[in-house]
Amino acid sequence: MKAIVVTDQAAGTAGMALVERPDPDAARLASLAGASYGDVVVQVHASGFTGDELAWPSTWIDRLGRDRTPSIPGHELAGVVSALGYGTTGLSIGQRVFGLADWTRDGTLAEYAVVEARNLAPLPGDVDFTVAAGVVMSGLTAWQGLFDHGRLRDGQTVLVHGAAGAVGSMAAQLAREAGAHVIGTGRAASRQTALDFGAREFVDLENDALEDVGEVDLVFDVLGGDIQKRSAGLIRPGGTLVTVTGPPEARPADGLAIDFVVVSDRAQLGEIAQRVRDGRVRTNIGTIATLDDAVAAFNPTKRISGKTIISIRP
Ligand SMILES: NC(=O)c1ccc[n+]([C@@H]2O[C@H](COP(=O)([O-])OP(=O)(O)OC[C@H]3O[C@@H](n4cnc5c(N)ncnc54)[C@H](OP(=O)(O)O)[C@@H]3O)[C@@H](O)[C@H]2O)c1
């Protein structure tokens, strides 16, 4: 199969290469000798990659700390189940699926990927593969940050940083649908995009005073650093700072600071797919490229906003 691999962490996305790799061995997966309990093989139709994946340790080492290069990056996928491993339940060969691949195994920028069945959800026939791949990571991250960790409720105010980006635009849409007042942030050029994705107000972080937004119940942080620290001071007693950038650098005076790493969740993927189908959420895809053009797409000459999705099969 064709796959994108990385071998040199220092090279970043410029070190990505399109190579030939062996197809997953379906017969071995299905046998007891394979010990691949619960795995399925997915014929990948569309794959997503997050910009700073190559900085994550899990791209380079496995769960036992062993070098796993050359590794295949990309963790979001939509495709069709082509083989079932030993002990797999809940999915069928030929089924359309989408989900999140394990961080510490070969990923989805390939014609086939091996994924634990529990990390996949059925994909309705009327949702395009590229759209589905474009909402996996952003949709799950936004859902878990707002509702699982942030416990957002109707009528509350949420400050969503990077509201024109992949995760932020999804958080803005889901929070607004949940009845929250959404204040989005970003650079000046992102204002209209953030408003289009559901923010009621926008703070230009380079020119406006963040402190002018007043008190909020929840901060959804994707930026970290100084912006995160200043945001903690805006949180009402009992409120929460949720961040996806690593251990929190600040805590609200009377509230919680929670960081998390997104996990795949079949029920939440179903909720997200339903919202895509009925138009309550839309994707924020900037570029769609083929696998042959993927390395160039991940090394753009100018900044692209929105996700880059690799369409591997129509
Ligand atoms: N922990 C987890 O589970 C998890 C899951 C998903 C994502 N993440 C992380 O979350 C972060 C965001 O991911 P994403 O896919 O949403 O990225 P993205 O699409 O690039 O969105 C980031 C947004 O923030 C804006 N931004 C960045 N720096 C800014 C600054 N200094 N001032 C104002 N605006 C700024 C960007 O604007 P420009 O485009 O103009 O720069 C963009 O609109 C990444 O670090 C990613 O690794 C973590």
TrEMBL record:
Pfam families: ADH_N, ADH_zinc_N. Residues 12-310 form the Enoyl reductase (ER) domain. It comes from the Bacteria. This is NADP-dependent oxidoreductase. It comes from Pseudonocardia eucalypti. The lineage of its organism: Bacteria, Bacillati, Actinomycetota, Actinomycetes, Pseudonocardiales.
